[in-house]
Amino acid sequence: MDKMKAVGLTRYLPIEDPKSLVDVVVEKPKATGHDILVKVAAISVNPVDTKVRAPKDKVEEVPKILGWDVAGIIEDAGPECSLFRPGDEVFYAGSIARQGGNSEYHLVDERIVGRKPASLNFAEAAALPLTSITAWEALFTRMSISQDPGANEGKVLLIIGAAGGVGSIATQLAKQAGLTVIGTASRPETVSWVKSMGADYTINHHDPLLPQLQAIGFPNVPYIFCLNALEKHWTGISEAVSPQGVVCAIDDPASPLDLKLLKQKSVTFVWEFMFTRSLYETDDMIEQHLLLNHIADAVDHQKLKTTLAEVLGPISAENVRQAHKLIESNRTIGKVVLEGFV
């Protein structure tokens, strides 16, 4: 039986513990059905990795492999595949219900895979899939924002936590759609990054939102996309959102939210979870294939840019643990990527 290198876990431990993520050798999978087998060239690390790895009283008999951002080359394809063939370069986030991509080879359903942007290298491409799907689905599917710039003239989007991976892509997509974008950032380096992504204004998420919005001429905003600390910002969001506005969130609140704060304004609140389609194998899961191809086209036509901020080195347990530490610090800018196996 063929084997492959991977980074995995059998126990859920604090990231400071060297056994929290370890180098392992596991069986190399085979492509069947709609699956393609990808030779992994680069991976990126996201907050979902740290949430799945978070300490809990559970032991895995087979090493669990994390990693939901991959760029690589197809080595084999199942008999039901029609979108790709061996040799194609691809990028994708995968399914949280299956083993992740922190391995030499990875199985993924072709219907949630896109062609890698031709103008990017593998590291630059690996920074994009999960955040691009999240931002795209949040803005255009969940919040029902038009992609037509003419329809969005004078409309404003507030992105809370704009310097991270999702915020960086959401800012670019929103600007393409003709929205005025206000991004929150609290440090000089994050303010600079958010502006480099195209934000029209920045405000500080550590201070009350509404007075800052009013100071730059916005008494309220019709769209708010909250990317972290939802419970902390909930009252401020309810104050800042326009009557009949839309609020979208992606993080898990630490305490219950009082939805009544939105009632008087008839505000719509909606979640975005980019794994929904793959987790439930929805009838429209191929939309993520189409979405990623659209992202690739936008990148190749210089309408979008990668949000890669740092390449930590090759894919190893030591380097993946370092990436998890960076994510858990809540101070990352853009995306952290690892490339190749030693």
The CATH architecture of the largest domain: Alpha-Beta Complex
- The total domain count is 2
Chain-averaged pLDDT: 97
Shape: globular
Helix content: 25-40%
What can be said about the biggest beta sheet?
A: 7 strands, mixed
Number of helices: 10
Q: Tell me what portion of residues adopts beta-strand conformation.
A: 25-35%
* Full CATH superfamily name of the largest domain: Medium-chain alcohol dehydrogenases, catalytic domain
By CATH reckoning, the class of the largest domain would read Alpha Beta
> What is Rg?
20 Å
Q: How would you characterize the overall build of this protein?
A:
By secondary structure, this protein is of the alpha/beta class. It folds into two domains: 3-128 and 276-339, Medium-chain alcohol dehydrogenases, catalytic domain (Quinone Oxidoreductase, Chain A, domain 1), CATH 3.90.180; 132-271, NAD(P)-binding Rossmann-like Domain (Rossmann fold, 3-Layer(aba) Sandwich), CATH 3.40.50.720. It has ten helices and 16 strands. It has helices spanning 47-53, 122-126, 129-142, 165-176, 188-196, 209-215, 230-240, 276-280, 287-300, 317-328, and strands at 3-12, 22-27, 35-45, 56-65, 70-77, 89-92, 105-109, 113-115, 156-160, 180-184, 201-203, 221-226, 241-249, 268-271, 308-311, 335-339. The strands form three sheets. Strands 3, 5, 6, 7, 8, 15 and 16 form a seven-stranded mixed sheet that branches. A six-stranded parallel sheet has the order 11-10-9-12-13-14, sandwiched between helices. Strands 2-1-4 form a three-stranded antiparallel sheet, with helices on one face. Helix 3 (129-142) packs across helix 4 and helix 3 crosses helix 9 (287-300). The protein is globular. The protein starts with a strand and ends with a strand. The model has no long low-confidence stretch (mean pLDDT 97). GO terms for molecular function: oxidoreductase activity; RNA binding; zinc ion binding. One of its GO terms (cellular component) is cytoplasm.
